[in-house]
């Protein structure tokens, strides 16, 4: 399993948390959003999922991975 911390812009509320964590779950990753730091901790199996797919899942929800 791979762990990565992503900086995400545009998150501000519980809806943002649910949207991002739900999108990560859909692609096969698990995530924990930290609104205070504007980051998402993601755990995923690098043999099944690429980092670009994770970033795309977050960006598809309307947020910017920086």
Question: What secondary-structure arrangement, pairings included, does this model have?
Answer:
Blueprint: E1 2-9, H1 14-27, E2 30-34, E3 39-44, H2 51-59, E4 64-65
Antiparallel strand pairs: 1-3, 1-4, 2-3
Helix pairs in contact: 1-2
Comma- or semicolon-separated keywords:
66 residues, globular
Give the overall shape: globular
Number of helices: 2
What is the helix/strand order?
A: EHEEHE
Poorly predicted tracts of residues: none
What's this, in brief?
This protein has helices spanning 14-27, 51-59, and strands at residues 2-9, 30-34, 39-44, 64-65.
What does the model show?
The chain has helices at residues 14-27, 51-59, and strands spanning 2-9, 30-34, 39-44, 64-65. It has 66 residues and is an alpha+beta fold. A four-stranded antiparallel beta sheet has the order 2-3-1-4. Helix 1 (14-27) packs antiparallel against helix 2 (51-59). It is globular. It starts with a strand and ends with a strand.
